[in-house]
Amino acid sequence: MDADALRAQQAPLKQQYQDDPASARIVMTARGAIHTAAPACTVNTDLGSLVAGLHPAAGGDGSQACSGDMMLQALVACSGVTFSAVAIAMGIPINSASVTARGEMDFRGTLGVDRHVAVGMTSVELEFQIDSSAEDAKLSKLVELTERYCVVLQTLAKPAQLVSRWKR
């Protein structure tokens, strides 16, 4: 895809969202069936289902997806797609590129071993490996715009309001 094709594909959406801002507000939903016999949850998507379970550092056997890994994978996916779209829009030639996310977590927090240890990741690092003939300044701008427009990255950087509730 080139910049003109991407612009043509997105132009009607951008115009719609300018004309009717409310139409840009979409509610996304994820659902899972919680397993009660073992700590696991089956997450259903339009592309299939995935069973998530405990990370080996929390007692899992490694045969199920870990939600922390899934969060990093979502960051990689989102930033990778955003990077690609921005590179196309900017006309930056990319021979190849990859993105890696690393998250550091102290499992004493989630296992309740030490109440003073944070539950969850305490740092996340995102690294792009880029093979391109473009100038460093253009590649820096590409990564800057990728960070700006990546939904998952921005949600992690500026957490959304979160409400948790239960019902029968």
Describe the fold and architecture.
The protein is of the alpha+beta class. Helix content is 39%, strand content 24%. The chain has helices at residues 3-19, 67-90, 107-110, 136-149, 151-157; strands at 31-35, 40-45, 48-53, 65-66, 96-105, 121-131. It has a four-stranded mixed β-sheet. Strands 5-6 form a two-stranded antiparallel sheet. A hairpin with a 2-residue loop joins strand 2 and strand 3. The longest helix is centred in the middle third of the chain and has 24 residues, at 67-90. It is globular, with a radius of gyration of 19 Å. The termini are far apart.
Secondary-structure map:
Blueprint: H1 3-19, E1 31-35, E2 40-45, E3 48-53, E4 65-66, H2 67-90, E5 96-105, H3 107-110, E6 121-131, H4 136-149, H5 151-157
Parallel strand pairs: 3-4
Antiparallel strand pairs: 1-2, 2-3, 5-6
Helix pairs in contact: 1-2, 2-4
List keywords for this structure.
globular, four-stranded mixed beta sheet, alpha+beta, 168 residues, two-stranded antiparallel sheet
Quick structural gist:
The protein has helices at 3-19, 67-90, 107-110, 136-149, 151-157, and strands spanning 31-35, 40-45, 48-53, 65-66, 96-105, 121-131. It is of the alpha+beta class.
